[in-house]
Amino acid sequence: MKPLYTEYCTVSGEGEMQLHVPAEFNYAYDVVDRIAQEDPDRRALVWVQDESCEMYPYTDRHERTFCFSELSELSGQAASCMAAAGIGRGDRVILMMKRHYAYWYTLLGLHKLGAVAMPAVHMLNHEDLVYRIRVTGASAVVCLGEKALCAKVSAAVADCETVKKLFTVGADVPGFIRLDREMEHCAPLAERRKTCKEDPLLLYFTSGTTGRPKIVVHDGVYPLAHIQTALLWQNVRDGGLHLSVADTGWAKASWGKIYGQWLCGSAVMAYDYDVFSAVRMLDVMRRHHVTTFCAPPTIYRFFVKNNLLDDGFGDIEYATTAGEAINPEIVERFSAWTGLEVHAGYGQTESALLVADFQGAPIRVGAMGRPSSLYRPVIVDENGAETAPGVSGEIVLPAAGRCGIGLCVREIPGLAMGDTVWDGELYRTGDIAYRDADGYFWFIGRVDDVIKSSGYRISPFEVESVLIGHPAVMECAVTGVPDEQRGFVVKATVVLREGYTPDQAMTTALRNYVKSRTADYKAPRIITYVEKLPRTFSGKIRHVEIRKKDAAGQK
Q1: 302 within domain boundaries
Q2: Residue 376 CA to its chain's centroid (Å)
Q3: Comparing C-alpha atoms, which of 225, 528, 484 is closest to residue 347?
Q4: How confident is the model at residue 423, as a pLDDT?
Q5: How, if at all, do strands 165-169 and 140-144 pair?
Q6: Where does residue 144 rank: exposed (0-12), middle (13-18), buried (19+ CB within 10 A)?
Q7: Residue 108 resides in a domain
Q8: Partners of 431 in beta bridges
């Protein structure tokens, strides 16, 4: 069958996209069940479990391939089982399922009920989980049957009155309904439940790089906004196999592990691991003939810094990256090894893809790419006026004007619901960039991360991009430290590769390395060494945490 994205969007030869969304569109019924009816044996999900997983193997097999007819039936059974437990339209359900294949049919089952899925990472502590339950009024939790995870969920629920049901998969746990076993006794939903495109579909929390995470709710149109992600950026192909490296608790999973890929005819891979091994991941990708690949910059750094690409990159035809800005040095070395370009993409938990190296457009290494036709972001100054080329400002989405589905004002496809995301007539991303004369955006940093030193505005990312090129540096984060004379001075927090010594000679070498490749005033005056950098649950470096430690006089 022809990929279904053609029924929901129009794409012009210039990459312009418009969506056409039926009033009662529901991804689980209109995409998954539709494919299951017309092409039941089409491959949907390839799941491979790594030996590092606590529950290895979950079943008698550690690899499984699901076709659409299987996922359609399983999601219908999951919906019936959860409905029998009292879950219905509008109920909020937390999913803490790592990369287990049950996530896919459970998520789709919630879509069929019109319930709101709340994907969450398993690393949440007690306070994180209680906070999420209380502010959302969550009524149920579905989690893996791992003892520590179930104990954490049970403790959090004891402090929250709204949660009425607990489900687990993979193991029997007292106090939890064993969803995957109960489903065996449930027939799939007999009839389609009433839902509409404006219904809340997904609820995420932001990654919290600068403060406490806030709620982000997406409606039923959100899956269709990721047609652009899969088709025009990841370049997935009909019959291919796409791997996006992401935990299902991250919004990135919605970008690369289900919606746009299936709409465009590609299957998705779930590589399930607890301890990351770049060597084992490459082996899995080669063995299963993954055709398109997306990962955060951290993964590319592992491949490059550990010299793992001598044998190429398997059957990968197209490579993309998102989550953070990627350093040009890493891109150039990766491309030299594999012959593949790395296509950058930028968006937020609140949106789909905002800026990217879209298919067919020339890449400028180090740039973020060019604006999405669905969102048309612009860069504005402190007064809200669009900046000239070369002048930095904040990336925003204007509320006024036309957008991808031909609507005006605030009805933008794939953007979070509610007025809380708006500041007057602007959606502010909090990210600083500039555009060049050809319309490419160039990332500078978060609003709070840009360093002002002796009258200069210094991009932490620019300094990090230079430092990462030194053979001794595995990772680094650049921040500003208060200084009486200069306002702030540049500080680098560095993770060294194995075999290098964090001494004064190394500090001098790194400082001179930066000076030889950029202006003297950008070179770090302070360099400290750590074993690892503080990160959000989604893997982004928490510059704010480093700044807080500096302010407290810690290193």
Answers
A1: no
A2: 20
A3: 225
A4: 79
A5: parallel
A6: buried
A7: yes
A8: 446
Residue 318 has pLDDT above 70, yes or no: yes
Q: Please count the helices (runs of H) and the strands (runs of E) in the chain.
A: 16, 27
Give the integer Cα–Cα distance in Å for 137 and 145.
23
CA geometry: angle at 418 spanning 416 and 422, to 5°?
80
Tokens 């060019």 belong to 370
Answer for the pair 167, 141: CB distance below 8 angstroms, yes or no: yes
Answer whether residue 171 is part of any domain: yes
86 lies in a domain? Answer: yes
CA distance 549 to 554: 5
Q: How many domains, the chain?
A: 2
| CATH number for the domain that contains residue 512 | 3.30.300.30
Structure tokens at 105: 């049919």
CB-CB neighbours of 11 under 10 Å: 16
Domain around 119: 34-218
**Residues near 185 by Cβ (< 8 Å), separated by ≥ 6?**
none
Q: Which two tokens stand for residue 373?
A: 């036709």
Of 191, 218, 245, which residue sits at a domain end? 218
| pLDDT in the model for residue 520 | 85
Q: Which 3 state secondary structure label does DSSP give 200?
A: strand
User: Is the separation of the CB atoms in 225 and 352 below 8 Å?
Assistant: yes
Model confidence pTM above 0.90: no
The answer to whether 521 and 456 are in contact (CB under 8 A) is: yes
Length of the chain: 555
Buried b (16+ CB within 10 A) or exposed e, 313-350: bbebebbbbbbbbbbbbbbebbeebbebbbbbbbbbbb
What is the dihedral sign for C-alpha 293, 297, 299, 301? positive
C-alpha angle 541-546-552 in degrees, rounded to nearest 5: 160
Which of 218, 236, 263 is the last residue in one of the domains? Answer: 218
Q: Percentage of residues in the chain with pLDDT exceeding 70?
A: 94
Give the full edge-to-edge strand order of the sheet including 393-398: 378-380, 393-398, 426-435, 441-446
Q: What whole-number distance in Å separates Cα of residue 436 and Cα of residue 389?
A: 5
For β-strands 487-496 and 473-483, DSSP reports them as antiparallel
* Contact between residue 446 and residue 206 where contact means Cβ atoms under 8 Å apart: no
The CATH number covering residue 84 comes to 3.40.50.12780
Task: Give the N- to C-terminal CA distance of the chain in Å, as an integer.
Answer: 58
- Amino acid, single-letter form, for residue 332: E
Q: What is the pLDDT of residues 374-429, one digit of tens each?
A: 889 999 998 889 999 999 999 999 874 434 333 333 467 889 987 666 777 888 89
Pairing between strand 9-11 and 17-19? antiparallel
